[in-house]
């Protein structure tokens, strides 16, 4: 035999039967499995040091000490959602505040209460009246957020409800001489009635069409009050509602007082928001987001009812805010029904982020500040608001308060992009991947598997495949046996197997799930007439998978 | 319409004519099935053999049966009968227990103990919540209030946990402390893990304790409108010494409990001392309450006893030595001992010939999952023939519903092939209610130590093939022996190992020859004793298999359908018992290999396990001793030296699992090796119990020991043993319609063994004075 000749493998087990010639099969020249280990002296990608410095304080765990946790009386809610954990790098016991929003809210409330102290005297009137408007608008926007965000009903009629209540209560107050504190209550009734009227179509109309309908209602109201003599078509609004401010107060305290009153209104709206969005109704509706209604319904969620309920409760709250509005401004103006008010408020919601209370409040603060405080800018203000809104729509996914999540998603995307460029496909783990692997054994497994695969790829020849075809089971040449042992030792997930369709007649290739209870999946629709044919077809698939890896 | 499926089981595996046997059938997509009693003849549809064969038998019960969907309670737990509602604790109370979680977290809620109605949110309980945190909670039917721990419980470490509730203030306190010592847990103290957590919170309302909610340990009650009440939230892990008190215990008292394992007496409502009740002969399912009200707990789906407790210190490895350290009682949420289905039909067994029978159930066309065989064996009232086939039902149980092809990564390299799975295998894999075999692991990673036949066994039926090996296995393979007996016209009786375990040697005594199954691997001491006594007393035994008489198993005293094994540190084992958990809870005996207990199979059968491989089989070749006149009568009518170069199991008679002659392990010194297989592939590796150091060259093409030996020796009082040492042997019998040299060889032996008087060749025993 010359060097160029194809080496021949002789079946060692056949020596037991010297009478018959031993089986021979063409095979590969010998190749040491250590070849890939010897050839690989370094990682191909550059290895960078990893690890992140803990530059901030982390609370230790309580250990054996008693941890007495407190709740917001009388609810089951804990004051802070805190998770105890083991630091995976040291096993040190630590505590993490899972949800830091209560802290931010508390700080924000404190800042709002103390804010008047830092308002310069020169701008006092402008700033404080703007601040009061902020409180009222924030309250309206919170209720509106319930309708758009929680209930998912695209109603533009929220200001119409407020307006209707403001007009109605002012009118009644003038006619009947009502005290100021009755106005929010009557407003609530008007809101409920108004909500009932415009809420019912929401059961039939969806999305855009409903928005159009509500826009029509808003316009109708505006035209009505502009033309109605009772509602002050001549005076540009109806005025004369009683004020909640004691008449004796001077200008400065009046503004201060009304600011705190508006702030209280906002807190009222936040409470409403919390009790709807954070309780049963909100949870039911989160189960039924847009385009998944059918699924929710199949799970027994009556989302239509829940949506209408949210709509009615919000409308009632909006009506009540309308009553307060009337007391605050001493009446109502057609401005409430104007299209630009609706659009400006929509800008507030979008900037803050739909579906979050903090979004509604912060968005309102930004827009009101530009609109009411930066008056000196003139009409440029609206361009500024438009620019911010445009920027938010263009660059942010869920408004300002979605930035954190969006940033993380973006960082993850960058991470996988960078890893994709650095890591070899099917190669060893990079240090940054290793940090994410709890079982360090897996890191070595990846190295071993890569070496093994790189070596085995060199063993695949026509001779080896032909040897398998002629006898899939039993003793094999070294090259083929190495391949088979590797294939058979693979993990169970997506490991190939054969499914019998008809005993000794028809077989098919499937892939195991690796999860108890989950049936294998069919990988191709070809049938094989005998187990041997199926074994070989399965072998060819594995060879192909190996070469592709 | 749902896919039509039919499954069933019988409450007995062995009956005599006149006995009652109950059939329990579950059906999907149909309410009637066509039932037919059949006598099973051959179970292997391999084209090289005679094909599948059965005989329909007349029976009153044949015809249409009304069937229904049945529900199965999966998961082990303890129930407490509490008629006086002592555990309906309306005031302050404390729940405490030691716990060793097997798989905390993973999104599964596991109830440690409580009187909890998971459907109506009523009652109270102590849980490991889906994040693995200890959680105490209760409900009033509307709302649930709860308190959870600071850090999760870690897998495989012992903890002492408790929850106290003060009804006057509404203050609940969780107590969680690690009780790991140097031996009993996964992690050492060097791992720097602080297990402790003590959390307190004021809860909002008080629990409501309706009388219809039961107190359950390691589970909680649930409800389904079709199924009714069942138990859910089953625990994976061990409990030790759970206790309930009717007052809020102080931390000092709980510290005391944790350190001593003794529950304080004051305020005790129940204290289940799991370490009580051990005897030298094992322990049952009852957990004793030493509290004032005798609220004893009963195991459902057989929680595993005899497990190490929180205080196991590594010195005593058996509950017989230190029962107080064996308070561990282990639960698995996928354990199943008895399906307890509603009875479908009861049969008073007619006067049938002894043999293997089944009720064949067909839905529609009777193909695939629309066909079911409920297998049972009929033994005679009194012996009717000189030949007895001893059905290895213990080994059927061991392999019952094995999942190896799907779950075991090692199975493909072990078997040297890719599995060929059937529709039944897939159905089995998808259905937790059918349970697991002694080759599987529970979902939490622990090995399965109990198997029973009070559940449908999908691979104990004709036609079934072992998916991982591409051959028939156990019962369907053993049918080849029955088919051979039928074909050759030998009159025979059938008894099962269950009968032999109960009745002992007296059952075998009347028979001149006893035939084993192809793979009688799981043997209780009573069966081994009976076999040994039978042979020593002049009986003749033909061991028609490989890897037989291998594991020591125990049968449960009250439930003979339940078999137990502990797989220890040696042997070809699918799992390994934890340190200290080596003794059978059913018998008190150390489990593991009979070899390691001083009784290697060679001592009784002449051969013992040496190697296994599933990619190929090899023929036997006559050995020189096959020409000695003591044995050459076996080969009468056989031409040439090669025996069995054909067969239904990879084409030859020597293979799958093979046994070898070994004087060092007690093969009787006068034994002859009359033939041996050889040239096995390298898939045949030497078994681990024969390996001290593994080194290259322990496989078929390197090691001379890798072979099947046909061994023959005579025993006292004209007794004799013939062993084939190969599982594949019997699957060569049906080749060419039973006309082949394996069949001839066996026929020579069976005919000789079945004759009265001396054996052929008995006289050729003088000192050899050779001229050549």
From TrEMBL, chain A:
Q: Which UniProt keywords apply?
A: Cell membrane, Membrane, Transmembrane, Transmembrane helix
Tell me which InterPro entries the record gives. Answer: ABC_transp_permease, DMF_alpha_dom, LivM-like
Q: N,N-dimethylformamidase alpha subunit domain: which residues?
A: 444-547
Give the UniProt subcellular location, in the record's own words. Answer: Cell membrane
- Where is this protein chiefly located? membrane
Carries keyword NAD?
Answer: no
Topology in the lipid bilayer: Multi-pass membrane protein
Q: Which Pfam families match?
A: BPD_transp_2, DMF_alpha
Mind telling me which residue stretches traverse the membrane in this protein? Answer: 102-122, 128-149, 156-174, 180-200, 207-225, 257-276, 308-326, 381-403
Record's protein name: N,N-dimethylformamidase alpha subunit domain-containing protein
Species, as recorded: Bradyrhizobium iriomotense
UniProtKB/TrEMBL annotation, chain B:
Q: Which InterPro entries match?
A: ConA-like_dom_sf, DMFA2_C
Question: Which named protein is this?
Answer: Large subunit of N,N-dimethylformamidase
Q: Which residues form the N,N-dimethylformamidase beta subunit-like C-terminal domain?
A: 320-739
Cross-referenced SUPFAM superfamilies: Concanavalin A-like lectins/glucanases
Determine the domain of life of the protein's source. Bacteria
């Amino acid at each position: 035999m010359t060097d160029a000749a194809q080496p021949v493998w002789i079946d060692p087990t056949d020596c037991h039967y010297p009478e018959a010639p031993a089986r021979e099969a063409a095979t590969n020249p010998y190749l040491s499995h250590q070849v890939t280990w010897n050839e690989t002296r370094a990682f191909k990608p550059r290895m960078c040091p990893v690890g992140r410095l803990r530059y901030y304080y982390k609370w230790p765990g309580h250990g054996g000490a008693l941890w007495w946790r407190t709740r917001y009386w009388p609810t089951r809610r804990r004051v802070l959602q805190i998770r105890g954990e083991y630091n995976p790098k040291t096993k040190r016991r630590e505590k993490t505040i899972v949800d830091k929003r209560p802290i931010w809210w508390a700080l924000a409330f404190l800042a709002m209460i103390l804010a008047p102290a830092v308002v310069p005297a020169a701008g006092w009137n402008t700033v404080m009246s703007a601040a009061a408007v902020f409180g009222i608008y924030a309250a309206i926007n919170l209720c509106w957020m319930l309708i758009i965000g929680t209930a998912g009903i695209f109603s533009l009629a929220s200001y119409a409800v407020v307006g209707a209540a403001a007009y109605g209560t002012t009118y009644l107050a003038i006619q009947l001489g009502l005290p100021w504190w009755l106005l929010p209550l009557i407003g609530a009734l008007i809101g409920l009635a108004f909500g009932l009227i415009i809420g019912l179509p929401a059961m039939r109309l969806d999305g855009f069409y409903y928005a159009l309908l509500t826009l029509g209602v808003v316009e109708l109201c505006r035209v009505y009050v502009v033309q109605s003599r009772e509602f002050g078509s001549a005076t540009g609004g109806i005025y004369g509602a009683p004020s909640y401010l004691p008449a004796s107060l001077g200008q400065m305290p009046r503004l201060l007082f009304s600011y705190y009153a508006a702030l209280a209104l906002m807190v009222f709206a936040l409470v409403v928001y919390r009790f709807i969005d954070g309780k049963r109704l909100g949870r039911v509706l989160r189960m039924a987001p847009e385009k998944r209604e059918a699924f929710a319904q199949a799970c027994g969620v009556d989302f239509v009812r829940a949506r209408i309920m949210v709509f009615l409760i919000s409308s009632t709250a909006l009506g009540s805010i309308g009553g307060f509005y009337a007391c605050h401004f001493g009446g109502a103006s057609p401005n409430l029904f104007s299209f630009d008010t609706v659009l400006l408020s929509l800008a507030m919601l979008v900037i803050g982020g739909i579906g979050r209370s903090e979004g509604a409040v912060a968005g309102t603060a930004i827009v009101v500040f530009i609109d009411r405080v930066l008056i000196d800018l003139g009409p440029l203000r609206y361009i500024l608001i438009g620019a911010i809104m445009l920027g938010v729509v263009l660059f942010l996914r869920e408004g300002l308060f979605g930035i954190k999540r969006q940033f993380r998603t973006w960082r993850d995307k960058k991470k996988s992009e960078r890893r994709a460029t650095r890591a070899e496909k099917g190669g060893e783990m990079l240090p940054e991947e290793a940090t994410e692997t709890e079982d360090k054994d897996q890191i070595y497994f990846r190295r071993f598997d890569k070496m093994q695969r790189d070596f085995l790829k060199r063993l695949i020849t026509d001779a080896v495949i032909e040897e398998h075809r002629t006898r899939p089971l039993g003793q094999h040449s070294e090259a083929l046996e190495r391949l088979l042992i590797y294939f058979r030792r693979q993990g169970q997930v997506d490991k190939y197997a054969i499914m019998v369709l008809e005993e000794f007649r028809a077989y098919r290739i499937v892939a195991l799930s690796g999860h108890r209870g989950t049936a294998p999946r069919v990988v191709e629709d070809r049938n094989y007439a005998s187990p041997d044919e199926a074994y070989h077809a399965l072998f060819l698939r594995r060879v192909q998978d190996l070469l592709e890896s | 319409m749902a896919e039509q499926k039919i499954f069933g089981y019988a409450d007995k595996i062995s009956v005599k004519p006149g006995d009652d046997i109950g059939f329990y059938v579950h059906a999907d997509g149909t309410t009637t099935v066509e039932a037919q009693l059949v006598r099973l003849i051959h179970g292997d549809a391999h084209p090289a053999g005679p094909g599948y064969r059965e005989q329909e038998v007349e029976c009153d019960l044949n015809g249409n049966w009304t069937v229904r969907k049945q529900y199965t309670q999966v998961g082990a737990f303890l129930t407490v009968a509490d008629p006086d509602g002592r555990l309906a604790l309306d005031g302050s109370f404390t729940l405490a227990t030691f716990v060793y979680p097997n798989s905390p977290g993973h999104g599964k809620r596991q109830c440690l103990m409580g009187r909890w109605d998971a459907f109506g949110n009523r009652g109270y309980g102590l849980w490991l919540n889906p994040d693995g945190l200890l959680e105490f909670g209760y409900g009033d039917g509307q709302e649930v209030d709860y308190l959870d721990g600071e850090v999760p419980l870690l897998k495989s470490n012992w903890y002492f946990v408790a929850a106290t509730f003060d009804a006057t203030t509404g203050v609940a306190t969780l107590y969680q402390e690690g009780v790991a010592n140097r031996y009993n847990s996964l992690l050492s103290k060097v791992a720097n893990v602080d297990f402790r957590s003590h959390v307190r919170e004021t809860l909002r309302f008080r629990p409501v304790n309706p009388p219809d909610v039961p107190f359950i340990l390691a589970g909680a009650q649930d409800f389904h409108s079709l199924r009714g009440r069942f138990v859910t939230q089953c625990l994976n892990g061990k409990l030790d010494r759970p206790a309930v008190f009717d007052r809020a215990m102080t931390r000092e008292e709980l510290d005391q409990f944790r350190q001593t394992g003794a529950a304080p007496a004051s305020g005790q409502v129940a204290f289940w001392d799991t370490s009580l009740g051990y005897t030298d002969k094992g322990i049952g399912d009852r957990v004793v309450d030493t509290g004032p009200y005798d609220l004893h707990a009963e195991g459902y789906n057989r929680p595993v006893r005899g497990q190490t407790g929180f205080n196991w210190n590594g010195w005593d490895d058996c509950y017989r030595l230190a029962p107080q350290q064996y308070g561990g009682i282990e639960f698995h949420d996928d354990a199943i001992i008895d399906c307890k289905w509603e009875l479908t039909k009861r049969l008073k067994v007619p006067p049938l010939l002894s043999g293997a029978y089944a009720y064949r159930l067909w839905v529609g066309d009777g193909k695939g999952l629309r066909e079911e065989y409920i297998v049972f064996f009929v033994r005679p009232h009194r012996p009717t023939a000189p030949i007895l086939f001893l059905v290895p039902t213990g080994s059927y149980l061991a392999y019952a519903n094995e999942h190896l092809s799907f779950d075991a990564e090692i199975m493909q390299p072990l078997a040297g092939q890719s599995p060929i799975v059937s529709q039944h295998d897939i159905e089995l894999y998808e259905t937790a209610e059918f349970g697991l075999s002694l080759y599987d692991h529970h979902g939490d990673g622990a090995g399965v130590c109990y198997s029973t036949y009070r559940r449908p066994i999908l691979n104990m039926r004709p036609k079934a093939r072992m998916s991982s090996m591409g051959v028939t296995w156990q019962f369907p393979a053993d049918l080849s022996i029955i088919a051979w007996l039928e074909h050759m016209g030998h009159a025979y009786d059938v008894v099962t190992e269950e009968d032999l375990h109960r009745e002992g040697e007296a059952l075998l005594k009347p028979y001149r020859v006893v035939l084993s199954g192809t793979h009688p691997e799981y043997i209780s001491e009573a069966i081994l004793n009976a076999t040994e006594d039978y042979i020593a007393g002049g009986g003749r035994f033909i061991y028609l298999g490989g890897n037989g008489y291998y594991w020591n198993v125990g049968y449960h005293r009250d439930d003979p359908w339940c078999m137990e094994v502990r797989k220890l540190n040696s042997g070809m084992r699918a799992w390994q018992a934890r340190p200290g958990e080596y003794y059978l809870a059913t018998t008190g005996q150390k489990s593991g290999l009979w070899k390691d207990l001083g009784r290697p199979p060679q001592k009784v059968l002449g051969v013992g396990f040496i190697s296994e491989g599933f990619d190929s089989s090899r023929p036997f070749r006559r050995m020189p001793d096959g020409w000695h006149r003591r044995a050459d009568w076996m080969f009468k009518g056989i031409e040439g030296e090669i025996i069995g170069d054909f067969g239904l199991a990879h084409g030859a008679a020597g293979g799958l699992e093979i046994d070898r002659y070994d004087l060092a392990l007690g093969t009787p010194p006068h034994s002859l090796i009359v033939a041996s297989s050889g040239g096995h592939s390298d898939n045949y590796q030497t078994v681990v119990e024969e390996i001290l150091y593994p080194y290259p060259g322990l496989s078929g093409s390197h090691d001379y020991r890798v072979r099947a030996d046909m061994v023959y020796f005579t025993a006292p009082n004209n007794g004799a043993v013939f062993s084939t040492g190969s599982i594949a042997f019997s699957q060569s019998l049906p080749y060419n319609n039973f006309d082949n040299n394996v069949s001839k060889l066996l026929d020579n032996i069976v005919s000789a063994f079945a004759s009265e008087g001396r054996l052929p060749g008995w006289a050729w025993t003088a000192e050899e004075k050779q001229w050549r």
